[in-house]
Amino acid sequence: MYLLANIIEAVCMVLQTVLDLYFYVVIIACVMTWFHPDPYNTIVRTIKALTEPVFYFVRKYLPFTYTNGLDFSPIVVLIAIKLVNMVIVKTLFQFAANLS
To answer: What is the number of domains present in the chain?
Structure first.
């Protein structure tokens, strides 16, 4: 049981780290829209490639997130990341703690 608990805890830690990193990538993507950087820059293209599919998904299923020229889909994504981090990851951590 200790092995399973350690594996679940390791997966939780990796998932938490990935979610935290993506949280900051979304914030960087939002800040980039204020400055209009060079669209051919490799970093800009990478950040757009990482965030636009998720933003498109949110805009598609929640059309009210884009109103009057304001795009609220990054806010929805940030809230979803925090919810997943606080509910699912913490629940898995507690499950791993109960196994050991």
So the answer is: 1
